[in-house]
């Protein structure tokens, strides 16, 4: 698929897709006319990249963990230095804390919505008559 279709299907700008390619997060074949041609699998890949970026991971870390997003996995252990592993563990722990915070916030919103709906229901029932 061409870059425009990938952009549309993932909600990612063409400029950002070119940046992902520059950062070696995705790769395109080139048609004879020079147009980029992306494999179908890049729809999910781009969505995963966006999720990881939204979680705060930098592209250099995402590039290292991309093999874990693919099946079959091809992991380059030589790149897994003790420093890289420590960085990934720190990022994972930070994500876990963020997930916990987001879950608490979601639960608070649910409780608020439940309370508002419970208070509105009797008032709306009284005006329906």
TrEMBL record:
Keywords for the protein's UniProt record, in alphabetical order: DNA-binding
Q: Pfam families this protein is in?
A: MerR_1
* The UniProt record lists the keyword Acyltransferase: no
Domain called HTH merR-type: residue spans: 1-68
What PROSITE patterns does the database record attribute to this sequence? HTH_MERR_2 (PS50937)
Quote the InterPro entries the UniProt record gives. Answer: DNA-bd_dom_put_sf, MerR-type_HTH_dom, MerR_fam
Q: Which GO terms describe its molecular function?
A: DNA binding; DNA-binding transcription factor activity
Gene3D superfamilies per the record?
A: 1.10.1660.10
How is this protein named in the record?
Answer: MerR family transcriptional regulator
Which organism is the protein's source? Streptomyces boncukensis
């Amino acid at each position: 698929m061409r870059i425009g279709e990938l952009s549309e299907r993932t909600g990612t700008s063409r400029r950002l897709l070119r940046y992902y390619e520059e950062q070696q997060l995705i790769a395109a074949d080139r048609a004879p006319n020079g147009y980029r041609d992306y494999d179908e699998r890049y729809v999910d890949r781009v969505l995963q990249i966006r999720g990881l970026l939204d979680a705060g991971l930098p592209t250099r870390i995402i590039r290292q963990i991309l093999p874990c997003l693919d099946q079959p996995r091809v992991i380059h252990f030589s790149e897994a230095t003790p420093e890289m592993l420590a960085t990934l563990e720190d990022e994972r722990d930070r994500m876990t804390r963020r997930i916990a915070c987001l879950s608490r916030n979601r639960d608070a919103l649910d409780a608020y919505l439940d309370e508002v709906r419970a208070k509105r229901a009797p008032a709306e029932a009284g005006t329906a008559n």
